[in-house]
Design brief:
globular; 0% strand; 101 residues; mainly alpha; 6 helices; single chain
Length: 101
């Protein structure tokens, strides 16, 4: 399976530099399914913390899917969120993650 996914993995890594943050989010999440969770989190963290509300929300949703799939622990998500004070929907997602600990 990994051998068959190799060409897709390289394309996904290229997409991590896309101009559109939503594309980066989807590529990062997909890479986590290919065993590249550390790289995915490296890409998602600044998006979660610094992008507009709905882009940040998309990145948090990706974190949730990654958690549900067993690719990232709640402890790791909590560390990624840190002390960041989120507003709006990202704030609700942060509360959701923190309440599950």
């Amino acid at each position: 399976m990994q051998e068959k996914a190799a060409p897709a993995e390289e394309k996904l890594k290229e997409l991590l530099k896309d101009d559109w943050m939503d594309i980066r989010v989807v590529a990062a999440e997909a890479l986590s399914y290919l065993g590249q969770t550390d790289l995915a989190l490296e890409i998602l963290e600044p998006i979660v913390k610094n992008e507009p509300e709905y882009v940040s929300l998309a990145a948090m949703n990706a974190l949730d899917f990654m958690y549900q799939a067993g690719h990232v622990s709640l402890e790791r998500i909590d560390k990624l969120l840190g002390d960041t004070q989120f507003k709006g929907y990202p704030g609700r997602m942060a509360e959701y993650f923190r309440a599950m600990k």
